[in-house]
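Box 3.1 A note on notation
Throughout this textbook, protein chains are presented in two layers. The first layer is the amino acid sequence; the second is a token string describing backbone geometry. Keep the layers aligned when reading.
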Amino acid sequence: MAEFVDNAVKDIDNRLRELKEEVNRLEAARAALTGGTTRRGPGRPRGSTSTRRRSGRRPGRPRGRRGATRANQALELVRSQPGITIPQIAEAMKIEPNYLYRVMPRLVSEGQVKRNGQGWHPA
């Protein structure tokens, strides 16, 4: 009986992990579509990190070092191939497209790229 309970708990934990990953992907997609605004669900206080992955970074270390590099790579691809789509950028960079749905709106807000339909162009 204890083995059954252990297996059931493991199955539930695995499913919860999958659902949390899906929530993160959906929140990133929603933020990309709405310009970065997010809606908080009931019971999630401001600043809650319950569905966010903690970075584990050390205090004093600059933020965004890796993200800036990826953003620069994406920007160079847009400059070299105007009209390129996010899936094409992701494939060229060998990363998942959901990451780019956060990066590209930031590049838009910085005035470096603009969107035309599904394609991205230098600003």
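Strands lie at 113-116, 119-122. Helices lie at 2-34, 65-80, 86-93, 97-109.
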